[in-house]
Structure formats: structure tokens, C-alpha cells
Write a structure and sequence with these properties.
This protein has 116 residues and is mostly helical. 80% of the residues lie in helices and 0% in strands.
């Protein structure tokens, strides 16, 4: 059975979309930072798996928009973790989440937002 790498990456990025949504939801609506960090860990793990697949098959999968997506996700994760570690407001976490979400939806061709 042949594994379609592009489909697997899309499937994993869909999980990242749901997990990232939950990070933002638990930060702003549920006020549960422990749950937010749990979902951030899940999203980060899936992105690590995607990066592994992507870079091990770089000649076949190389695309600038995927690398831009990796970068925007890293910015989001760094913003959330920095705000937790310094006990700052998560206003910028929300801004970076929205940037990541927009980039993700554009890259994957998703037209419906989880936030709706």
C-alpha cells in the first residue's frame, strides 16, 4: 500500500488546525491555560511529524508556501510560550494564531473557519 505523502500532510495539518483552534479557545474563551498548553503540544507534535515527512521527501514535496506555513506556526508557538513564561497578555498570541490560521486555510484551500 502506497502512502500518499501530500494527503498525509494535509490530514496532519487538519489536526493542527483543530488543535490550534483549541489553543486559542482555551486561552480566550475557556480561560484554561493548562488545556491550551496541552493542545499546543499536540499541534507542535503534528507539525514536527509533518516537517519530518516534508524534509525527508524534500525533492518531491518542496514548496515555498509549506515552508512559510512552518514559519508562521513557529511564530505562533513562540508567542504563546513566551507569553506564558513571562506572564504577559495573550493578545499577540491571538494575532499570531489568526495569521497562522489564515496561512493554513489558504495553503490547504479551506474556506470554512473553525472559529465560525
Amino acid at each position: 500500500m502506497e502512502l500518499n505523502l501530500v494527503e498525509k500532510i494535509k490530514e496532519l495539518f487538519t489536526s493542527v488546525a483543530f488543535d490550534s483552534y483549541h489553543v486559542n479557545d482555551y486561552l480566550f474563551k475557556q480561560n484554561n491555560p493548562t488545556a491550551a498548553m496541552f493542545y499546543l503540544s499536540l499541534a507542535n507534535t503534528n507539525v514536527a511529524i509533518i516537517k519530518s515527512i516534508y524534509y525527508c521527501n524534500y525533492n518531491e514535496l518542496a514548496k515555498d508556501d509549506i515552508e512559510d506555513l512552518f514559519h508562521q506556526f513557529d511564530v505562533f508557538v513562540n508567542e504563546v510560550t513566551r507569553n506564558f513564561s513571562t506572564n504577559h497578555s495573550h493578545q499577540w498570541s491571538n494575532i499570531e494564531y489568526n495569521k497562522f490560521k489564515d496561512e493554513l486555510y489558504s495553503t490547504l484551500g479551506i474556506s470554512t473557519s473553525l472559529d465560525d
